[in-house]
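Q: Can someone sanity-check these two? First one:
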Amino acid sequence: MRLSNQGEAVRGRSEGGKYNPNMARIGDADYETISVTCDFCHANLRLNRRDDLRELSAISGRNLTCSSCHREFWITGDIVNTPYEMFIFAADAHFESKHHMLAVMSLAQAWELFLATFAYSNFVYRPSWLQQRHAAAREELTRCEQKLEHATRNFNIRNLVNLTTHTIVRQMHPRTLAEAEPMIEQIEQQRLHRDPSNEDIATITDDEIHAAVQRLRNLQIVDLRNKVGHKQAYRPTAKEVMACIEEEIVFLHHIRDLFGVGDFDDFAADAVETPRWFQP
């Protein structure tokens, strides 16, 4: 779990006036909430990011007014993991508490977010960083982001698996945003949310990538999520959930590197593997 440590030196003080970094550190943070202990009255506060903090990005440091004693203190140390990683952590917590249905739903959400991140990596982030800087680059980036968001707005996990497959089969890997924009438009025009044919998949010549695509198309979590989340309200066994956690999440991290998946900040930090189709 990655933590944000910026702002550590900004004051957060206990009743005696001495800085206490432990009291001001954010703990038990997830995608929706954080918990923190007030420096002054020691009240344990559980805060919703949208309703209470009105801030959805990771908190490097900010002042917070305690809802119990109404005194202001500094908080820092939020997690800065990607959204899909946060849902993997949530799934682990749900599994430990034997809430298997919630674990399945969190794992499915993690996969949806990961596959969406692949699309943004491929069509927006990588071409943005590969191309030469120019005056209209920011406008191009925003336009491509908006077009991709519109094209995939109703996609479920199966649709995103199909889009990933078509992207690889058709070698849709732009090097500039000018190349990316017409490719993004093809997502709707050519209905890339639909299943590709076996003949199309067979055209992938790289054995490792071909095997990864085939495994991606047979994720257990897809069918298990459908059984849990729909009217059947299926209650899965620990064995069923564990297969999705231990085997399929390891696979997720494998294809993260194989397919070169990362968020915008990862690309900015040059922390994303170059996928094989971009290597000499």
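And here is the second, same format, sequence then tokens:
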Amino acid sequence: MVRKVLTGILLALSSIFLAFSVIGIAAIWIYREPLKKEVSSNLVQIDGELSQAEVTLEQTEGELDRALRIVETTEKALQELAEQTGSAEDIFENIQSTLDDRLIPDLKTTRERLGTARASLENLRAVLNRITNLIPFVDLNAPDKILADLIIS
């Protein structure tokens, strides 16, 4: 009897598991198609987003290459500018040394000569004034104006 009960219980359990298996297979067939379509659409959407991301990355790479070229060009220009600045400094040093060695002494000499010429013109003016005072009928006013203008300048 125990055997019959065990057999009955096993048979009932087998039947229940068989029924669950059939229900499970039917459920899989029913839900498989919509699930498959949803997963497919999600995969297509993901593929599109990945393609768009790839295009964006390629564009970004191009922009980075362009920016790198600009930076390299700028670096070269700055290097050239630094070299030109060095050349300009050398030129200014040469000009300064020329000014110090040649032009400034010549200007000092010229200033001294102009001072001497001014003093000579003032002496000439004084002499002309004395002559005008000694000889009243001689008119020397015109040279006096010219001398005054020369002395002022």
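A (reply): Looked at the second one. The chain has a mean pLDDT of 83. The CA atoms of residues 71 and 77 lie 10 Å apart.
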